[in-house]
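We both want to read discrete structure tokens more fluently, so let's practise on a single case. Would you supply a protein for us yourself, any chain you care to pick? Would you write everything just below, so we can both look at the same thing?
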Amino acid sequence: MRKHNGMRPQDIAILLKICALNNTTWKTTDLAKQLSISQSEISESLHRSQIAQLIDSKKRTILKTNFLEFLEYGIKYVFPQAPGPLTRGIPTAHSHPFFKNKILSQTSFVWPDPQAKHIGIEIQPLFKTAVNAVKTDDELYTLLALVDVIRVGKAREVKLAKEELRTRILHESSRKSNKTKNSTSRMERTAI
């Protein structure tokens, strides 16, 4: 059995990319190309994730509740982020377009990118090729930004990010609406 030398930031990005694929079949070569990470590093990452019980023994299916628990309670301690200087970059954390109508803040966070239009406080992405990877994958971009909220956000922002991650990773929104409909139907039957 190979030794486990701890998780690396790109491990989280790879698992988020698999989540973003939303149960479609994937190959390590595709992940490598889309994330600009070598195929051997993808394989090593999947091995580390399997040992950490974040992906199944066949390294094909994410153990979503374990992964979500790690994101909610461990990511900010394992991969902390201290904001840096003002720079040009791609909006992340609560500055991501997803949060536009949800959080009002005068602070803007960005991943450094000299070609970007936005200026904000620099935070480093989880992996060095994230800026390129998110330019072609909106779902991955949103998931990484939600993780950044947990890494640098305030309590209210973190709560919103955790709820959204739960919805996106576990695909709970349809289940919640069905539960609400079923509860309403039971209440209506009881009232009659």
Q: What stands out?
A: The first helix runs from residue 9 to 20. Residues 174-192 have pLDDT under 50 and may be disordered.
